[in-house]
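User: I'm curious whether this sequence folds into something compact or stays loose and floppy. Could you predict its structure so I can see for myself?
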Amino acid sequence: MINFKTNILLKDYSHYRIGGPARFFFEVSDIKDIKEVFKTFKKLFSENKDLKIFILGGGTNVLFSDEGFNGLVLKINFDFINLIDDYLIEAGAGVLMNNLVNYSQERSLSGLEWAAGLPGTLGGAIRGNAGAFGKEIKGSVYEVLSLEIKNPDNFVIRKNKDCEFNYRSSIFKTNDNEIILKAALSFTSADKELMKKEIEKNFSYRLEKQPLEYPNAGSVFKNVAIEKVPLDQRKLFAEVIKTDPFPVIPAAYLIHKAGLKGVCQGGAMISDKHSNFIVNIDNASSNDVIYLINLVKSEVLKQFDIKLEEEIQILS
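Assistant: Here's the prediction. I'll summarize afterward.
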């Protein structure tokens, strides 16, 4: 029997600590229950076309509105990890990336060291093709099992090439009709101690460079592919171009050069430690954050003729 909770505050499930009530809320911990959740929702609310479904992982890359969400928020808690072959690990979509990094390191399986300290879940990382230090999750994905939301009798198995991975995107993000259930990831053999050093280095970098002392949703904007930068502007940024995993200009640098580091609105601030983070320093509202997002986009466009795209998801 599926019983949806009502009026659950989303701020309690958000790294931003921002968000009003979800009209309906359900946490699913067993893959075999997932079809029943969608069928029950469709049966109960088939007449109400305004009700939407949002799939929630770790809540690390989303900004919820203070007005709440008029629909069902489905939190995925598929939290299992299994070694299914010498170099293949199967994990549920709700597994925290840090736990997956530690699991693979303990077994001398290399491939996810770049994700050390990365918040959020495996499902969210695959959906947004998460990456850091020039690497992306697509480099490890072997196979993904998903379920069609509109047709919950239809399970889909996708090999890596079928996931249509792109920069901070995948087919699961672009068509928004599939919920990731689990994935198999491939690894290579490596020295456990060398892996440990790499993991510690990457984790320390995040602690040093990112404002993790404040509630945040990670990088707000995607880095900018060099081909999207006007030719007459490229020479201005030649020294900061980095590989991520292709040549990009860091959004943080553009925001900093636009003079926006440390700018506040209400309880939100463009971080003075890492300007691609907008942090909640004093009970910020969703409108505070959205104001700063729009300010950044406007100023970067005006000053450099460059359009920034959000990496975080804004849900209203």
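Summary: The helical segments are 34-45, 97-106, 122-127, 171-174, 192-209, 231-234, 251-257, 286-304. The CA atoms of residues 28 and 34 lie 7 Å apart.
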